[in-house]
Amino acid sequence: MIPLKSENDLKMLKRSGSILASVMRKLEDAILPGMTTADIDRISEELILKEKALPAFKDYHGFPCSACISVNEEVVHGIPGAKVISEGDIVSIDLGVNFQGYFSDMAVTLPVGKTDPEKLRLIRITRESLDLGISYARSGNYLTDISHNIQRFAEKEGFSVVRQFVGHGIGKALHEEPEVPNFGSAGLGPLLKSGMVLAIEPMINAGSWECRVQQNGWTAVTRDGLPSAHFEHTVAVTENGPLILTSI
Ligand code: MG
């Protein structure tokens, strides 16, 4: 059952999403070579708490931190710690916010300092694949119209789409129905309706799509060790088309 949100729900989700987007903007400015991923996590938690919201990932199924921070070949669910960010790294930050029981979810991948052009292209294509996916989040489209177009676009650029992790519905819980894959045929799955809210989150690999999860039980890395990028927005399907809730 995919929950449909009321006008009031959407208003609250927009507040949650704009808190998250402003935290993310501040983090983008804060990241410097020499910082640890734990530093970034601490800053993100402080920024979220300052907005009188809660970090939605903390303790979620036992996740120990506020942010998932995945560097270079790490795909998603990187656990912040002693790892030092260096010039040339690409750093994916995935954050969730719970504001008065309304959840939003967002991810960006940032280059640190001077970065290899191919890594920058991976970041750009992943961001554009999200933008394209969002453009299909319209009432009357099928759910997998989003999925299919993300895959088509990323593969046309010579990259591959992670299969093991997918987007999701979101609202009064961090993860709701439906799953939102970033691959597959168009024209399948439920018809999209006004009031649905989806976290759309392509994870795109420079090499093969295959991933493995490290021994900590969380951090997913590419099998071939090549870099991966991740962008995510929380998006409402409305009468007037897709509305990005994770924007300032
Ligand atoms: Mg998500």
Mean pLDDT level: 97
Number of individual domains: 1
Number of helices: 4
What is the gyration radius calculated from CA atoms?
Answer: 17 Å
**Structural class, please?**
alpha+beta
What characteristic shape results from the CA principal axes? globular
Question: Helix share of residues?
Answer: 25-40%
Q: What fraction of the residues are assigned to beta strands by DSSP?
A: 25-35%
Second-tier CATH architecture: Alpha-Beta Complex
Regions with pLDDT < 50 over 5+ consecutive residues? none
The string of secondary-structure elements, in order, is HHEEEEEHHEEEEEEEEEE
CATH superfamily membership: Creatinase/methionine aminopeptidase superfamily
Look up the CATH topology.
Creatine Amidinohydrolase
The level-1 CATH class:
Alpha Beta
Within the largest sheet, what's the order of strands? 8-7-9-14-15
Strand segment count? 15
Straight-line distance between termini: 30 Å
Bound molecules: magnesium ion
Largest sheet: 5 strands, antiparallel
